[in-house]
Amino acid sequence: MQRRFTGLKANLALAGILSALFLSGSLERLELISLDFRFRHARAYPPLSDSLAVVGITQGCVQSLGTSPDRSHYARLISFLSRSGAHSIISDIYFPHQGPAGQDRELVAAVRSAGNVVLPVFSPEVLVPSGRPGAIHYRAGSLQSSFPELEAAAAGLGHINIHPDRDQVVRSAPAFIEYGDRTYPQLALAAVETARLLGREGGDGVKPPPLDRYGRYYINHLPPDSFKQAGSIYAFSRVLQGQVPASAFRGRIVLIGQIIQGLKNADLAPTPFGYQFGALVEASALNTLLTGRVIKRAPPYWTVFGLFGLAVVLTLTIFSSRNRINLLVCLAATAAVFAGSFYVFKAGRLILETIPFCLLVVSSYGVSLLVSLQEAIALRRDSLAVLYREEEEVSTLIRPISAREISEPSLADQNLNYSLNLRTPEMVMRIFSDSIGAGAVLIYDYQPELARPRPLAASGFPEDLAGELGEVVRRVGLDGKAWLVNRPVNLREPVLSKLSSRVRNLMAIPLVSGTAVSTVVVLMNKTPTVFSPTSNFTQHDVQLVTIMALQTIIAIQNAKLGLALKDAHLDTILRLARAVEYRDRETGEHINRITDYVTMIAEGLKISRLEVELIRNAMPMHDIGKIGIPDAILLKAGPLTEEERRVMQTHTTIGAQILSKADSAILKASEIVAGSHHERFDGKGYPKGLAGEAIPLYGRIAALADVFDAICSKRCYKEALPIETGIKVIREESGRMFDPVLAEIFLKCFA
Which Pfam families match (predicted)? Predict the structure, then answer.
């Protein structure tokens, strides 16, 4: 959803930018290339109208007449066409200056007699919009036309100006131009309008062409050889010499123009089909009107709305699939834009914009790649963050707690293995939490024979909810199907009605080991993540957790074995401690008290919880060596002799030997405690006379706790002293008998 939202914002922004570029004309050159392709290959041009004929001045005409046609030649041609019954006579040639008087009078008389001659006007300057509100006319700075007498004799006037596009290709013509207080239609429009005003047949049947936003109408250009193939172009000289029958012009609109290079007014104009004579461009314009095969251009708002609509469609496609599919979608969409515009131009002669839409498709695909790259970077960052946090967790387990910690590699290795086994489920749960965005994760050890499933490990889970979820876990274990319960949980499932309002949503997934459900993972209070970008649990989350099920089950099985091993070790320790207790009545209570003291000191050191547990579990074995001391010495009520004292001191060595070569981390720690808990910080202790930090940390902690309890508890050879006395001794012996750091922690706990 987040990806789609990002894509929608990006696509709408792109649509807005492309709309602005389109409306400003910045994309016009590219669009014109596409338009010319449609002109040349769509074959949307109409057949040549039977109502149109062209009389052209060619190179052969000049050779046949012996000179370029003069005004008397034009007069004779117009008279012949009028007698032949021509519908209208359109001249692409104007006569701006007076010539020989006789020829001028003859030409004026022929034009006036015909009564259906339309003459051209031309502005040699660049046309500019008129600027009048609502006007679609262009304004001419100057105007060239025929001399006044000839112009007055004409039935109508029309301009022959063309208005090339930005690439200088002629595809349209201004419908009207203004000069002074008069408006001149384009020559073809003037011809049709003149025929209508004269009441000639055909004039009323021609509809005005649609104009674009610039006041132009598009010319449906004919290929250069269309007139020759249709036999509708006649040589000027052959008509004058009577070689063309009058019937060839009866009822037709006849266009007179020059189609030879080098003569005045015989200009070449670039069109989508290449360069063509201006007279043939006018013929194509007139043919467009006569056949009704006009070209329309979609209004700008079509393109703008279409861009925003396509932006939404692309969001639902490109931003909802993988990059490979996105590439295919991009190619298909681009092809569809070109094919659609091509078909619409061919079938309906409608110009649809292609470049803005193609640019939007390509840009949207590019944005999708950037979004995918950003997601990949974020995914990599979050993955590395998860791994970094777990690496920190492992590092915490294996790195020294402080400079005073024990350095025995075997004990460190045993502690590491033991800790990793117990902590692996929690690490796996944190991976679940970080990946899916669950605010809390709880793993249950599911056994059908148990009345209530047993929580195995938890991360961020409120303790008061663990028991209430037992029924959910039991049902999931029995059904073997995942539960997805989103807000509101207490209305969707009655079994959840007792849950706290702190549960926003919940997902429970059974993990199968072999053929039966062995574990149920419960996650709740989801937030979006890169891996799972929704606020509710989905089937995608179920798949994600299930993929990690094997690693989870292995971790849980290892944890179970670790717990079983821990229970076995603790049971052994307690049995040995009881064996000593049977010989020394005070030892049992002493064990309980000293265990509490060492736990208090270890927690004050801010060491890891596992390290605290290891020290706590090792302390009951600190006097295990007393099992080898004779009863006469161990249970003696009075003071010991020097010899008896030396024998009593051997209990540290005996205890260390009993516990030596153990594979268990707890027993190894117990060995260190048993062998060093009577060492002094100043080096005057026994059995090795170690000093300072050469004494193992566990031994230093045990020494302080052991002495304090010995002072404040009753023994067979003395009465219990007040706690204040014990605290005073600890304070006075700090730095001599006891580690000053540990002594300070201990004293703060009793402050």
Answer: CHASE2, HD_5
CB atoms within 10 A of CB 410: 13
- In this structure, which amino acid lies at residue 12? L
124 pLDDT higher than 80: yes
pLDDT in tens, 595-608: 889 999 998 988 87
- In this structure, of 240-244, 588-592, 682-686, the range with the lowest mean pLDDT score is 588-592
**26 domain residue, yes or no:** yes
pLDDT (tens digit per residue) in 104-120? 999 999 999 999 999 99
Domain for residue 133, yes or no?
yes
546 and 599 in a common domain: no
Same domain, 58 and 169: yes
Nearby residues of 455 by Cβ (< 8 Å), 6 or more positions away:
442, 443, 444, 445, 466
Q: What is the pLDDT of residue 307?
A: 92
Assigned token pair, 641: 């002799």
Residue 549 has a pLDDT of 60
Neighbour-count burial of 8, counting CB atoms closer than 10 A to its CB (0-12 exposed, 13-18 middle, 19+ buried): middle
Same domain, 76 and 55: yes
Tell me the C-alpha distance between 743 and 720, whole Å.
21
CB contact set of 541 (below 8 Å; sequence gap of 6+): 436, 484, 507, 523, 526, 532
The string of DSSP letters for 139-166 reads E-S--B---HHHHHHSSEEEE------T
Q: Looking at the structure, do residues 713 and 588 belong to the same domain, yes or no?
A: yes
Predicted pLDDT of residue 513:
57
Give me the CATH number covering residue 695: 1.10.3210.10
Last residue of a domain, one of 351, 379, 399: 399
Helix ranges, 480-586 (H) = 489-492, 539-547, 549-583
Number of independent structural domains in the chain: 4
